[in-house]
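Narrative progress, year one. The postdoctoral researcher (J.K.) led the effort to move from monomer predictions toward full complexes, under supervision of the PI. The following entry was the first complex the group processed end to end, covering 787 residues in total.
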Amino acid sequence: MNFLDLIWLIPLFPVAGFIINGLFGKRMPKSAVGTIAAGAVLISFIFAVGAVYQLAQLPEHERSHEVVVYEWINAGSAVTTGGQATRFVVNWSFLLDPLSSVMVLVVTGIGFLIHVYSNGYMWEEDGFYRFFAYLNLFMFSMLTLILGSNYLMMFIGWEGVGLCSYLLIGYYFHKKSAGDAAKKAFVVNRVGDWGLATGILLIFATFGSLDYHTVEEVIRAGVASGQYVVSQPIFIGIALALFVGACGKSAQIPLYTWLPDAMEGPTPVSALIHAATMVTAGVYMVARSNWIYQMAPEALAVVAVVGVLTALFAASIGLVQNDIKRVLAYSTVSQLGYMFLALGVGAFAAGVFHLMTHAFFKALLFLGSGSVIHALHHEQDMRKMGALKNKIPITFLTMAIGTLAIAGTPGLAGFFSKDEILWQAFSSEHGHPLLWLIAAIVAGMTSFYMFRLLFMTFYGESRVDHHTEQHIHESPKVMTVPLIVLAVGSVLAGYIGLPKWLGPNLFEHWLEPVFEPVQAVAVSAEEAAHHSVALEVGMAAVSVGIAVIGFLIAYTTYAKKSDRAERVSAQFKGMYQALLNKWYVDELYDALFVHRAKDLGRGLWRFDSRVVDGLVNETAVGTVKSAVGSGWWDRWIVDGLVRFAGGFVKTASWPIRLSETGYTQNYALVMIVGVLVLVGYVLWGTL
Amino acid sequence: MVPIHHYLLLGAALFTIGVVGVLTRRNIMVILMSIELMMNAVNINLIAFSSQLGHVSGQVFAIFVITVAAAEAAVGLGIVIAMFKNKETMNINEIDLMKW
């Protein structure tokens, strides 16, 4: 079977599941609904694995397979800003290359595990079928996003995942907080979508196409011919516009506020959409547009700075949060910041690598937290947990592996990817020691808040209330097996991207065709990187050391009996309150934008009700008045004339009417007299 | 041979009687009969002139008149019957639908 030509089917299996579950799910047994949903994703996964395997068989420079399903839009000719004649043609086509193959495997593979897990987690919920229908629709949108071969298909998927995110955050729609969170996610994403749309329009206006390959070729040809040079304003403009889109979808400063609130959705949704897949769409998009970003180093610097600041900012909030899912949410924002840092220093492969490893351990941590929440009957506050280690051992073990992985323990996935990013932040030509320093500090903070989560949940004394305590139970197999698979992945996923001093970086090599430099790089910088193995190892040791410090602080504070947490929070009360309240960013946005928007809305409403409605009402009153006038005119003048004419004729004809007696003989007499007169007249003349 | 003015006088007398009958009588049947009388007065004139002038066309005309008179009588009687069915009367003064 030629899977490569069948990649267009991959998004279609989930859409079939969506249609079946969406239309008939209500009347189907739960087991059928869950099986169909998970099965559809499994088939997609199998097709994806087949296609990627066949792609890997091809020679390196041919690893890019495009399948055109049909010509979608052909909207006639246009002229680019450079004066080139072109046509607006968009195909419904799919592209499998090394980058999209990484994404498609992550999305379908982890997506499948989360679908399976949801079968257990969501079993008791109302609207089971609705959940799975949305989840399948999400898979379709996400797969369209990553497999589409042009920016417009990406945009379709981009909006589709946004919609599904909205629907799933608001899954418990009877809860006001869930509805508000869904709205917030939707509105904040609109800001980002504006940026993405602007970027796409600029791309078409500049390069005359939306197709990835065509755009890339135009840029490469332009660079070769000297038409395009690095730092040209249009590249910076496009790159920044696209990055606004990435900020919205991937929760970067200043548009990250929706993601922590998105935790109102069911936990599998948080794992799938708000940790492993959808929020990485921005990373994918920037990596996909790497030829544009390579031409705009200034935009790359913005990406790097925003990324590292987001990492720091979100990690600082994560230090003190007490809701288990919120800690993970801020951790996700922080890790996404790492990915953007990697992209921003030009290490696209490192960013995508961290995306992949993060998908494993963050999905694992979210699903694990879901398992904890499930065991405790929907308790999410870590202050009401503790000492769960022996009560839910599988959850504990898998979550411990996830924590070790994200904290950067040598040998686990997070170590390799995070270390690569740190190294690139330091050594890349776009990097800077300051970027490295902040990222290293964030690594320590990550280690602290993750171990804090682990210790508060599983160690120490039990703070679970007595009633719940008796019902604590390990989750069913359908939930623990995905946890175990993800834990294995969190351990092993890193080994395909070893640092240079340990072995070949297969992952980076695999992605090389996609991230081929637009211009010949200065070889010396590359060589310098190769030659500083000692420095690289040393820096890895430093970052591990920082992580260990984070671990030790967490261990002594939360695993042991200690009042340090209370003491420190009392000592730095202002700081603690600021962190606990998320730096008051939500309040700031409320004051700056939300309330202003509401004021604007109220003002417009007032304008509407007074001026617009007033005009309408005045017009109505005026019409009524003029109608009275024209009614009078009609009744008295027009009708009067008509009636006068009739009356006049009637009156004037009165005497003549009298001759019409109705007696036949009268008429006959008149006739005969007339004949006699006529005859008499004629005879008179002749005689 | 009877001179022509005798015939003409007879016809004139008959025609006058018919006219007076039409104008004065109230019974529709009598009016119809008076009309018949007027037509026959005309016939007498036609025959008399035909005989006088030795030309046959007068007689042909007379026969035409008789034929038409027969048809007229049929139509007239039909109207009378229809009218009687509606109005239950033969008095022409009671049939004044054309009155203002």
